[in-house]
Amino acid sequence: LAVMGCGASASAKEKGEKTNETSAGQPLLESAEKSAEAAAAQPAAQPAEELPATGSKALRVLVIRSSPRPDGHSNKVTSEFVNGLKAKLPDADVVEWLLEEKTDIPDFGQAIINGKGADGTEAEKALWQQGVKIIDEFKSFDLYVVGSQMWNFAVSPKLKNLIDVLLATGHTFEYVDGAPKGLLVGKRVLFVCAHLGSYPNGGLDNDFQLPYLKYIWNLMGVSEQKDIPIIAYKGDDADTEPLEQARALVKDW
């Protein structure tokens, strides 16, 4: 399968180059085994609450960057929004997670699942506690900015692994009468998604990046969402409109 590598620089896209990484994300947690129908059902949108205003509690912002390329399209547009937000809200507490460099996110798998139970080994329990630490830090933020490049029509393995760790029942969502209910109500998220090509029908046919990210954050209760798409094959012009969107969003959102 050709890789839709959208973390590359604009010049690389003009040459028609594609990366050859493949996505290695694993299926999510045991809750999917509990109720396939419930997991497939779109969770009900949660009412949005006002974010902390400047002059009251400082806004806490988590910037998640999945692209390993500093000059990548998603990183460039993400930086435009974040820098504008810092200028607008100088007291904001902005934290960046560069997933290619962040080493304290445990690998999701059977070991971390075992660590949740009483029969888990000490090593497995330690792995699960490390996951809880990541979850608790994630939950402490008011606004999420997720920069994502498309690989093989989906998110990168690093971003998928983070999502697998975050989706833990009783921490970011719970089941009520067999249906998922998000626990992170009152937060916001901006998705900056770079990809090659256009995706008709709302991307439902072959875009497993943005629709997936929207569903996951909504599952966690973050229903107030914005997104900035970047069509990377446009070369040097790919970032022009997305950069304008990022600047406008800082002013209006």
Question: What key attributes describe this structure?
Answer:
34% helix; 253 residues; 9 helices; 5-stranded parallel sheet; alpha/beta
Beta-strand content bin? 15-25%
Q: Alpha-carbon distance between the termini?
A: 38 Å
Q: Spans with pLDDT under 50 lasting ≥5 residues?
A: 1-41, 45-50
Main sheet record: 5 strands, parallel
Structural class: alpha/beta
Give the number of helices: 9
The residue fraction in helices comes out at: 25-40%
Q: What spatial form do the alpha-carbon principal axes imply?
A: globular
Mean pLDDT: 82
By DSSP, the count of extended strands is 7
Rg result: 18 Å
Compressed to H and E, one letter per element, the order equals HHHEHEHHEHEEEHEH
User: How do the strands of the widest beta sheet line up side by side?
Assistant: 2-1-3-6-7
